[in-house]
C-alpha cells in the first residue's frame, strides 16, 4: 500500500506542473513583461525537459533502482519549482521550467516502472498511477487561481514546488525491496 500511495503522490506532484502555469499566464504577462507567445514557452520548456529525460530516466531506474531515481528526480523537480519564482527574468523562468521538466520526466518513467512491477497488484498500481496524473492536472487548474488570489504568481509556483517535498519524504520511507 505504501508503494502505491507513493507512486500516486508522485504522479500527482508531477502532473500538477503540467497545468499550474495556465491560470497564471495573464498575471505573468503583466508582471514579467512578456508576450503571450513567451508565456507559452513555459509549457514548451517543461515538456522539452520531460522528453529529454524519459530515456535517461528509464536507464537510470534500470541501473540504480526506481527509488533513488524517484527521490533524485523529485529533488530536481522541487529545486526548479522553488527557484522559478525568485526572478521575473524570462530566461531564468524557462531554465527553471526545464529543470522541473527534467525531474518530472525521470519521476514519471520511474514511477511507471514501480507501478508495472507491483506483482499481482500491478494492474491496480498502473490504474491508480494513471488516474493520479488526471488528479494532478486537475488540481493545477483548480487550485492555482485560488492561490493566485492570496499569494500572487510567485507564491503559487512556490506552493506547488514545496508540495513536491511530500513526495520525497514518502519515498524515504519506502523500502527498495518489494
Written description of the protein model:
The protein is mostly helical. It has 6 helices and no strands. The protein has helices at 2-19, 25-31, 36-64, 66-83, 90-116, 122-172. Helix 4 (66-83) packs antiparallel against helix 5 (90-116). The longest helix has 51 residues, at 122-172. The chain starts with a helix and ends in a 6-residue tail after the last helix. The mean pLDDT is 94.
- The succession of helices and strands, N to C, reads HHHHHH
Termini separation comes to 11 Å
Major beta sheet summary: none
Radius of gyration: 16 Å
- Helix share of residues? over 70%
List the keywords.
mainly alpha; 178 residues; 6 helices
In short:
With 178 residues, the protein is mainly alpha-helical. It has helices at 2-19, 25-31, 36-64, 66-83, 90-116, 122-172.
